[in-house]
Write a structure and sequence with these properties.
- The structure holds 2 protein chains of 2 kinds.
- Chain A has strands at 24-35, 37-41, 47-57, 64-69, 80-90, 96-100, 106-109, 113-116, 127-134, 143-152, 157-167, 175-180, 185-195.
- Chain A is mainly beta.
- In chain A, the strands form 2 sheets. In chain A, strands 1, 3, 5, 6, 7, 9, 10, 11 and 13 form a 9-stranded antiparallel beta sheet that branches. Chain A has a 4-stranded antiparallel beta sheet with strand order 2-12-4-8, with no helix packed on it.
- In chain A, a hairpin with an 8-residue loop joins strand 9 (127-134) and strand 10.
- The radius of gyration of chain A is 19 Å and the shape is globular.
- The two termini of chain B are 37 Å apart.
- The radius of gyration of chain B is 19 Å and the shape is globular.
- In chain B, the strands form 2 sheets. Chain B has an 8-stranded antiparallel beta sheet with strand order 1-12-3-8-9-10-5-6, with no helix packed on it. In chain B, strands 2-11-4-7 form a 4-stranded antiparallel beta sheet, with no helix packed on it.
- The chains are: A mainly beta, B mainly beta.
- At the A-B interface, strand 1, strand 3, strand 5, strand 6 and strand 9 of A face strand 5, strand 6, strand 9 and strand 10 of B.
Chain lengths: 196, 202
């Protein structure tokens, strides 16, 4: 039987494997359980992708949101300028539309950035989506982010919520926090991937 | 020099490497359309939190057809899960005299079991197709409805005029039963050609 070598002299010396693995690395994964907040430490990946799986609020009507820190989590208050829009459709077909959401954008605001508004707390309702954060460790550029997800509003409708903006700092961003505007994150899973 | 084995009898039989991060998105399946009435992926389970589908050059046999999706809770016997969705797109024609961002209430669903359009009037000229992605979240949950979001760009033929149309669909399969299969097809005619890849993320 022939020995299949992997581009290197011996198996001991293998430094790369010629199969498709993608360039995303799972850095961390956290499951909420009545959590006041969930934080992640950021390093020097060029891009981070967060996946939100069935984020369930404890308090009806709460906003799911995030903020950033440049001081290892002592403060989450980086200034941000952002846009927000949503596409919605009522289950009873009584209303639908694509609207700019001026209640969720920021203009150099240091408060939390909303990712979704008016979460429904029924057992089968939640928010799922993703957030991309680009090059947070840069000391040259502001820190761009793009988020999109679908959630179940307090009124029975499907809500496709889109947010994009930048943290207006050239300091390295080293922490990110996810939390509700009111009450806990009752349940849900957040996956953090790093991309270089 | 000692040979380091990787849990298997020989290198040629290696099926996994313990030192590789397990969180890397995994390519589960690839299907290539060739005059296909539909393409289905069955056996979706709780292994992954997110299933991500990549659509590469989906080419319809019938001009101006819509690429569509539906879900199943009985491993593909029926694709008829109730869905509530939104649908909007940005479009621009090649002549540069027609463009907009608009919600399309004719393409969304309100508690409907119908197939969901996820492209807009994709053309069937040789160089026309649709490409993009769909993310399906936690389909095996028996607690939550099943959220999904799509973004597909199409080279479209709208009444004989060529457009680029960037379509965004979001919604949920309104069921707490586990979704275990997904199907893609055209609104009319076959999927003449194209590749669909299913990735798992956890």
């Amino acid at each position: 039987m022939a020995l299949t070598k992997l581009n290197n002299i011996s198996v001991e010396d293998v430094t790369s494997i010629p199969v498709t693995l993608g360039d995303m690395t799972l850095v961390s994964s956290t499951t909420a359980s009545s959590s006041a907040s969930i934080t992640f430490t950021l390093a020097d990946y060029k891009e981070y992708q967060f996946y939100f799986v069935n984020i369930h609020a404890a308090t009806s009507g709460a906003e799911y949101q995030f903020n950033l820190s440049i001081d290892s989590g002592s403060n989450y208050n980086v200034a941000k300028t952002s846009t927000a829009f949503e596409s919605y459709h009522m289950e009873d077909d009584s209303g639908s539309g694509l609207v700019y959401q001026g209640n969720a954008d920021l203009a150099q605001g240091t408060g939390d950035q909303q990712l979704f508004r008016n979460l429904n707390t029924a057992n089968d309702c939640s928010y799922s989506g993703s957030l991309k954060l680009f090059n947070p460790s840069s000391d040259t550029f502001v820190k761009h982010y793009i988020a999109r997800g679908n959630g179940f509003n307090t009124t029975p409708l499907s809500d496709d919520f889109n947010v994009a903006g930048y943290a207006n700092t050239t300091s390295a961003v080293d922490r990110i926090i996810f939390r509700m505007s009111s009450g806990n994150i009752d349940a849900g899973k957040i996956l953090m991937y790093g991309i270089n | 020099m000692a040979l380091i084995k990787h849990n298997n009898n020989s290198i040629s039989n290696v099926t996994s490497f313990a030192q590789i991060p397990s969180g890397t998105p995994i390519l589960i399946s690839t299907q290539t359309a060739s005059g296909s009435a539909s393409i289905s992926f069955t056996g979706i389970d709780s292994t992954y939190d997110v299933y991500q589908f990549e659509f590469i050059n989906i080419h319809p046999a019938t001009n101006s057809a819509y690429f569509q999706v539906n879900l199943s809770i009985d491993n593909g016997s029926n694709y008829n899960v109730t869905k509530t969705t939104t649908y909007f797109h940005a479009y621009h024609n090649e002549a540069g005299d027609d463009s907009a961002l608009e919600y399309d209430a004719a393409r969304d669903l309100a508690q409907s079991t119908s197939y969901q359009d996820i492209s807009y009037q994709t053309g069937n000229d040789n160089d026309q197709s649709a490409s993009g992605t769909l993310q399906l979240f936690n389909p095996s949950s028996t607690t939550f409805v099943k959220h999904f979001i799509t973004n597909i760009n199409s080279y479209s033929d709208v009444s004989g005029t060529d457009y680029t149309i960037n379509t965004y669909v979001g919604g949920y399969g309104n069921t707490t039963s586990a979704v275990d299969a997904i199907q893609f097809k055209m609104s009319s005619g076959n999927i003449d050609a194209g590749i669909i890849k299913m990735y798992g993320i956890k």
